[in-house]
Amino acid sequence: MASVTASARALPCFAAVEAHATSLGTTVASPDFPAKADAADELRPFRDKFLFPAADAAGRPSVYLCGNSLGLQPASTKQAVLADLDRWAALGVEGHFEDEPGKPNPGVAWWTIEDLAEAEAARLVGAEPGEVVIMNSLTVNLHLLLGAFYRPDGAREVIVVEDMAFPSDEYAVQSVVRHHGRDPAACIVRVPHGADFAAAVAELGDRCCVVLVGALQYYSGEWYDAKALADAAHGAGAVLGLDCAHAAGNVPLALHADGVDFACWCSYKYLNSGPGALAGAFVHDKHDTRALDGALRGWWGNERSSRFRMAREPEFRAGAPGLQLSNPPTLPMVALKEAYALHDAATMAKLRAKSLALTGYLEVLLAQLLPPGSHDQVTPRDPARRGAQLSLLFAPPTDVDAVFAELRKRNVFVDLRRPNVIRVAPAPLYNGFADVRAFVDCLAEALAAQKT
């Protein structure tokens, strides 16, 4: 491309992308920009720590921009899992307690294995010690947290959610309302996309019990202001819960400082811990989890000093760890540790800076290389209001299924969301600028194939 189009220059991200190119001695329009940007990327070595899908039969390398759906496998994960299998084989039940040097897989005694990635998890979501725990899966944790915090009392019975909440969140909310013998039609208020959440909560006033929001909207990719949401919820006398499935590992989080009451997240997207990986839960330390009457309980939430006494009367741990039910599965936990350690080593600050650069370049290329009017962007144009994901809407006469099929023919991995959105998410931990350019070139070819 000889010059940058007016539509690309008009983007809010363009100045930053242009400045990046200038610092590398090139231009945004130059074909050599991706190679130069990748060569200068201080996070580039992390790419070699991940396993990418193989080249296709035609020899085309994979273009994997689907970390918002399932992150890639760290190269070290297999050995970590095998090491824990060796521990089980060699030690049997003593693997719970044996932790001496020279024993198989030292440092991962199973009876404390939930601590394995606790420090990384706390840094990941901006939590204080004792506010996080790795356990279960996301929807299980959401059920546990809603059960603990949704305590309808008279007219204070409403849960406020996004109108386009992820379906599993919607089902969990309906379930907890019905569990209390109340009517979801009366007790669930859905705020339309783009509406003022704070105003909706304020209008409900003392009818509001819980506000539950996706920290980063799964469909649109919009990143919400957690502090503003917390202030709105607390102003109405309610609590704020966040589903951080698409935020954890994607954008900087400060759950403690922002005053979020509870949160949960999964670990298989930007955190690369494997399909169905263990999830995380957060409870702000202003809440004494031992005093949450509605919380469901299990033996693993006991203090470690009394956990194996098998007493009828429990001694629950303070904080989020007190909400554990059962001992966590060790193989998923060691896989999670490998992935969290990589993310922690890269640091969220550096990942966020690179993410802004990648999505900015992606947005510029889409404006530059695709036919005008070929798509719309559901994700906010303001880089500060989004993470790694750009959601692209393809309206008729474009057949989004045919476009997606053409992308797969070219060994491109992205995500199709009905009815007509393709989600594209360059993950800064392992994706580069050449990946972005390759994707847009393939998308341009896929759109051109519609006309032939």
UniProtKB/TrEMBL annotation:
Gene Ontology biological process terms from the UniProt entry: 'de novo' NAD+ biosynthetic process from L-tryptophan; anthranilate metabolic process; L-kynurenine catabolic process; L-tryptophan catabolic process to kynurenine; quinolinate biosynthetic process
GO cellular component assignments: cytoplasm
One Pfam family it belongs to: KYNU_C
Molecular function via GO: kynureninase activity; pyridoxal phosphate binding
InterPro entries, per the entry: Kynureninase, PyrdxlP-dep_Trfase, PyrdxlP-dep_Trfase_major, PyrdxlP-dep_Trfase_small
Cofactor(s) the record lists: pyridoxal 5'-phosphate
Keywords: Cytoplasm, Hydrolase, Pyridine nucleotide biosynthesis, Pyridoxal phosphate
Enzyme class: hydrolase
E.C. number(s) listed in UniProt: 3.7.1.3
Compartment annotation: Cytoplasm
Residues binding pyridoxal 5'-phosphate, per UniProt: L138, T139, F166, P167, S168, D169, D243, H246, Y268, W299, N327
Pathway(s) of this molecule: Amino-acid degradation; L-kynurenine degradation; L-alanine and anthranilate from L-kynurenine: step 1/1; Cofactor biosynthesis; NAD(+) biosynthesis; quinolinate from L-kynurenine: step 2/3
Top-level taxonomic group: Eukaryota
Its biological purpose: Catalyzes the cleavage of L-kynurenine (L-Kyn) and L-3-hydroxykynurenine (L-3OHKyn) into anthranilic acid (AA) and 3-hydroxyanthranilic acid (3-OHAA), respectively.
UniProt-listed NCBIfam families: kynureninase
Protein's UniProt name: Kynureninase
Originating species: Aureococcus anophagefferens
